Amino acid sequence: MTSLSQTTPQVSDKMSENDRKVAFATIIGTTVEWYDFFIYAAAAGLVFKTLFFSPAGSTLGTLLAFATVGLSFLFRPLGAFLAGYFGDKYGRRVVLVATLVVMGLSTALIGLLPTYAQIGIWAPILLLILRILQGLSAGGEWGGAVLMAVEHAPTHKRGRFGSFPQIGVPLGLLLASGMLALMSGVIAPGEAFMEWGWRIPFLFSIILLFLGHWLRKSVEESPVFEEIKERKSASQTPVRDLFKNHALLVIVAALVFAGNSAIGYMTTGGFIQNYTTDPNGPLALPRTPILTIVTISAAVWLLFTWISGGLSDKIGRRQTYIYGWIIQLVGVIALFPLVNMGEIWSVGAALCLLSVGIGMTYGAQSAFYSELFPASIRFSGVSISYALGAILGGAFSPLVASWLVSTTGSTGSVAIYLSIMTLIGFVATILLKDRSGIPLGPDHEEEQSKSPFTFGSK
User: Fold this and answer.
1) Residue 452: its pLDDT value, please?
2) 239, 297, 292, 216: which is closest to 263 by C-alpha?
3) How many whole angstroms separate alpha carbon 372 and alpha carbon 453?
4) Can you tell me the distance from the alpha carbon of 351 to that of 329, in angstroms, rounded to the nearest whole number?
5) Burial class (CB in 10 A: 0-12, 13-18, 19+), 446
6) For residue 164, what are the domain limits?
7) Residue 7: per-residue pLDDT
């Protein structure tokens, strides 16, 4: 029998019609998922602190609102465990469709929730439940989208194909920020935004849900999983096998993403929006221009995610990451000196510079992660590493930043925190080999299982 890994698009130099469909479906599907996720994160600092947590007071209400952003991250590993198990046993596509539906419905229901003034304590409780469902969905989404893209890719274009689902993240942020800016500045300005305008972006998720569901149902299963299924080589206990044989790799890979996500969630988690627009804060800038700036910075993030994905095919994943960490550190150091100037242009310059570094440490991640794990446990490996990295880095970074500012009275402490997280990501990257081009099929499990570390190996 001819190995499927030798006949699939994985070794072809051209994109088939299905490959193009996969690329479009992963971009659109991931955009929908992360639009839903980011619309909540942005609304936490702008809306929920007032409408759902107002009895706690301004400062504590803000901390509680950001805590709900972080809470969903605690459920990402559970979503990753479940998605990894089903994705490694039953396929990538079925998991992608399920996560999209759960995320879309949860987001739309948030847009229908009564506020604290209407139903009291049940308002924040229901909000938390729906946010937890978002976290479960997000935990399984990324790994499936990544593997559908990378496992369909020509070997020497995995970085480019892997950047497709990565692009969906800044696209989701761009769409979420753009919708909020449109509602707060044009359609429902002033009090109307707080009364009903904030709900429209959440309800808009229903339209995106139908679009993403249709696209994902139309794509073929990953060729690597098809080969696993034909060979009957799927792991019966993928999560257990992962931690039995690759626990250290999961931790180190998680730290790579932690270094990126801690910085990314300064904007996607709503901290910068809240810090710059808080009427009781040091800057008190208008809300709509800041949301517009975040939208522009998301476009910069998208551009450099795309650039770094392709660059990683030319110079390697590891080297691309190293350049990205250096640029990201520069962005972190410049962030608050520019933001604290209190000018719209300076906030824009700060966020755009920061987004260059975030994009450069994000575009290569899909291919980098996919080439680290053996085929039989790859879905579990990439999903769980990503989910743990999100907790260690992005989960509570807006909360930590708010606490540091309220405790120290200075943003300098936040800059130190973000610099440390960047250096952690840098060191974790240095510890891993570049395995660009390694065969991904199940007939190469022995090669895939060799030590991925730069230390302690021959």
Assistant:
1) 92
2) 297
3) 10
4) 13
5) exposed
6) 14-448
7) 36
Task: Establish if 422 belongs to a structural domain.
Answer: yes
Half-sphere exposure of 79 (CA within 13 A, CB side): 31
CA distance 336 to 321: 24
Q: What CATH number is associated with residue 208?
A: 1.20.1250.20
Q: Which amino acid appears at position 18 of this protein? A: N
pLDDT value for 2: 33
Look at residue 59 and tell me if it is in a domain.
Answer: yes
Total number of domains constituting the chain = 1
Structural tokens at position 257: 């993403």
Residue 90's nearest CA partner among 244, 240, 242, 228 is 228
Residue 7 lies in a domain: no
Partners of 432 in beta bridges: 453
What local confidence, expressed as pLDDT, does residue 231 receive?
A: 62
Task: Tell whether 457 is covered by a domain.
Answer: no
- CB of 302 within 8 A of CB of 362? no
pLDDT tens digits, 114-154:
999 899 889 888 998 998 898 888 877 788 888 888 888 88
Intervals of the chain under pLDDT 70:
1-16, 18-19, 215-216, 218-222, 225, 228-235, 268-269, 456-458
For the chain, what is the HEC assignment?
A: CCCHHHCCHHHCCCCCHHHHHHHHHHHHHHHHHHHHHHHHHHHHHHHHHHHCCHHHCHHHHHHHHHHHHHHHHHCHHHHHHHHHHHHHHHCHHHHHHHHHHHHHHHHHHHCCCCCHHHHCCHHHHHHHHHHHHHHHHHHHHHHHHHHHHHCCCCHHHHHHHHHHHHHHHHHHHHHHHHHHHHHHHHHCCCHHHHHHHCHHHHHCHHHHHHHHHHHHHCCCCCHHHHHHHHHCCCCCCHHHHHHHHHHHHHHHHHHHHHHHHHHHHHHHCCHHHHHHHCCCCCCCCCHHHHHHHHHHHHHHHHHHHHHHHHHHHHHCHHHHHHHHHHHHHHHHHHHHHHHCCCCHHHHHHHHHHHHHHHHHCCCCHHHHHHCCCCHHHHHHHHHHHHHHHHHHHHHCHHHHHHHHHHHHCCCHHHHHHHHHHHHHHHHHHHCECCCCCCCCCHHHHHHHCCCCECCCCC
Task: List, for residues 232-242, the tens digit of each pLDDT value.
Answer: 555 677 888 89
